[in-house]
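Hey, quick one: can you model this chain's 3D structure?
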Amino acid sequence: MKYKIARTSLASLFAVALIVSMAPTAQAVACSFARAAGTYGVSDSGTVVGIGPRATVALLTFDAAGGVKAKVTASLNGSVTESTLSGTYTVNPDCTGTASFSEFDQSGNPILTATVDAVWDDNMREARFIFTSVVLADGTPLATVISGDGRKLVP
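Sure thing. Here's the predicted structure for all 155 residues.
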């Protein structure tokens, strides 16, 4: 009886090993500018400390050369504004990155500069970010607790 169980177990183990060895190997695809490039629907929310709540929606475009631009609609403590932003971004092979940008009012006057840390997921179709620095055009730094996410639009 022990011989039969051992033989059956050995045959089963061999079959599993054969199936596993024939399965295609998963290869990690590194993140890159080319894969990040595209247009994203983005939203963020949080607080500008000492001022109040903020919520934003934007249509943001990353290009394959490391440039970023967007059309933004934001509400800060109940006051709604429209603006544009432009700047640069980085993307690392592990799907983390940063962006630095300037935001401008509808007349083209600078409002602020900001940086964010980001991570891409879902095969680079989605990004999550947190603001790490916000400085008004006059040089005043703002303390913020703002995070958001974006989803790549289907071409």
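One thing worth noting: Strands lie at 38-48, 52-62, 67-76, 79-91, 96-104, 110-121, 126-136, 141-142, 144-152.
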